[in-house]
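Dear colleague,

Thank you for sharing your sequence with our group. We've completed the structure prediction you requested, and as agreed, I am returning the results in plain text so they can be pasted directly into your records. Please verify that the sequence below matches your submission; if there's any discrepancy, let me know and we will rerun it promptly.
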Amino acid sequence: MKSLHTERDRQTIIARVRQLTPESRARWGKMTAQQMILHLADSARMATGELPVASKGAPFRFPVVKQLLMYVLPIPKNLPTAPELIARTTTDWDADMADYFSRLEAFAQKKIDSAWADHPVFGPMNGTEWGRQLWSHMDHHLRQFGA
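Please find the predicted structure tokens below.
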């Protein structure tokens, strides 16, 4: 399973992000490339506990359903997201990219066995689960933009 805690997998994500420009167009959805970069940075902030995100109390917290959604099924297109993960306004492409890379590095530096934030849909998650979930989430959005 690919994970942001694995150096090779993380470097692959970074290389794909570097392919983007402010003019990159989405194949689906409403986000611009710059909004997506902020969204991914904020997802990493959510995982480390830096950005609190309200719980959705969804039935996806049940272990079998959670495992199926996190490890087997692809993320569906056009799902609604937590408002906290789309609240920031874009500023400057280079600054937003630097922020993304900084947040990704902070995520990677956090010890897997330390305390991690709850996911708004999946509930309590450990570092291993967050590494997998964020990799999948970033892959989903990079595919959205053809990277």
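Summary note from our side: Residues 7-144 form a domain with the Four Helix Bundle (Hemerythrin (Met), subunit A) fold (CATH 1.20.120).

Kind regards,
the structure core
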